[in-house]
Amino acid sequence: PQSWLELRGAYYGLHENDGSRLGTFGFRPGIGGVGNGVTSNPVVGTLESEAQAWGVELNYQGEMSCRRCLRTDFLVGARYFHFEEESQASFATAPVPGFQDPAFVASESTSQFFGLQAGGVVHWDLAQTFELYGIGKLFGGWAQHEADVVDDSVFAGGSHTSSDEDEGMQWGLELELGFR
Question: Is 107 within 8 Å of 90 (Cβ atoms)?
């Protein structure tokens, strides 16, 4: 039986989105004041967002059985996953009374996962250099999430900031099917 170490990584890309929109934003109190269900007047705003995600894992993989064109392996390893996002809405006109223009609402968030995993692999050789495979992994570990939101005088009372952090144990399941 053979065994080996495998390092895998994935970059899910950087997504950027910018645009100018005319819309009704849900600011309260809106034009009707406190207690009125009406939100703000339509405003021209620029919406921008950027997000990226990537992950890496290191696995020890070993052959359990090999029969003709079918092989099974076990794997144990560790993984790390990272996701971050930034977004901002900038306003050139006043959506609510008392608004000091220009102003913005911005947010940043980051999520990370550190974990251990175990699973199995099934290989079916369809030809000498071509196989169909399936990988199943069960993983668990520590997840951490941080978020920050800032507004620059969009709401009454000047600028505001807010932050939140959350962490705890998480688990998941990954299935992968492919040809190689």
Answer: no
Q: How many CB atoms lie within 10 A of CB 97?
A: 12
What sign does the CA torsion over 19, 93, 103, 154 have?
negative
Nearby residues of 89 by Cβ (< 8 Å), 6 or more positions away: 25, 45, 46, 47, 48, 104, 105, 106
Q: What are phi and psi of 4, to 5 degrees?
A: -160, 165
pLDDT in tens, 67-109: 989 999 999 999 999 999 999 887 776 555 566 666 788 899 9
pTM of the model: 0.77
**Contact call for residues 169 and 142 (beta carbons, < 8 A):** yes
Measured CA to CA in angstroms, residue 97 lies from 43, 94, 151 at distances of 13, 7, 16
- CA torsion sign for 33, 35, 38, 39 is positive
Count of Cβ atoms closer than 10 Å to residue 17 Cβ: 10
Looking from the CA of 114 toward its CB, the CA atoms found within 13 Å total 4
CA 105 to chain centroid: 20
